[in-house]
Write a structure and sequence with these properties.
mainly beta, 86 residues, 5-stranded antiparallel sheet
């Protein structure tokens, strides 16, 4: 299920840049390319090996939840994701 925030309605995948990661708590954040609030990412929802060391990496993901508690799921390399053509 995608997020109910207006900026995510109708989107199957969101692209953004991974930032901040707390290795002790195993979570970090992604900044969506289209703007909006940072989205929480937890290591359990990442499909990238060695996910602890990739700040700045461009990723594609789905958004779950409702603002202010948006959560990324199915996080993968953006080039590996099958993104819809606009």
């Amino acid at each position: 299920m995608l997020g109910e925030a207006p900026e995510y309605r109708g989107l199957e995948m969101v692209v953004g840049q991974a930032i901040r990661f707390d290795g002790m708590r195993e979570y970090g954040f992604i900044v969506p390319d289209h703007g909006g609030e940072d989205v929480l990412r937890h290591v359990n929802n990442v499909r990238i090996p060695d996910s602890h060391s990739w700040p700045g990496m461009v990723v594609a993901f789905e958004v779950e939840g409702v603002e202010p508690a948006l959560k990324a799921s199915g996080v993968r390399h953006a080039q590996a994701a099958e993104l819809p053509v606009p």
